[in-house]
């Protein structure tokens, strides 16, 4: 990641502010933060006794699980297209 292309964006996730640095647009960074915040709130509502660290880890596990499922579905679709 080039120093010149880095963008800083302050976002709020689950009531905490974070400065995110990356190559993506500010809109993209805010959208990612909003999705993480939404997932944490969803999981937190179902598990109100979780502390923030455990909630963050459980959120990460859920998001990675969803990502893997999507990759598997994409591969299945690609495979079907290749065989047609």
From TrEMBL:
Gene Ontology cellular component terms for the protein in this record: cell division site; cell septum; cytosol
UniProt superkingdom: Bacteria
Biological process terms in GO annotation: division septum assembly; FtsZ-dependent cytokinesis; septin ring assembly
Keyword Transcription: no
Keyword Cell cycle attached: yes
InterPro entries xref list: Bac_CellDiv_Activator, Cell_div_ZapA-like, Cell_div_ZapA-like_sf
Keywords, comma-separated and alphabetical: Cell cycle, Cell division, Cytoplasm, Septation
Localisation: Cytoplasm
Binding partners and assembly: Homodimer. Interacts with FtsZ.
NCBIfam families linked: PRK14126.1
Primary role: Activator of cell division through the inhibition of FtsZ GTPase activity, therefore promoting FtsZ assembly into bundles of protofilaments necessary for the formation of the division Z ring. It is recruited early at mid-cell but it is not essential for cell division.
Protein name: Cell division protein ZapA
Species the sequence originates in: Priestia taiwanensis
Gene coding for it: zapA
């Amino acid at each position: 990641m080039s120093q010149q292309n880095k963008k800083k964006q302050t976002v709020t996730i689950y009531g905490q502010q974070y400065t995110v640095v990356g190559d993506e647009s500010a809109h993209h960074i805010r959208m990612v933060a909003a999705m993480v915040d939404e997932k944490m709130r969803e999981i937190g509502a179902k598990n109100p006794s979780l502390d923030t660290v455990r909630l963050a880890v459980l959120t990460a596990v859920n998001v990675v699980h969803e990502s893997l499922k999507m990759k598997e579905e994409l591969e299945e679709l690609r495979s079907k297209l290749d065989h047609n």
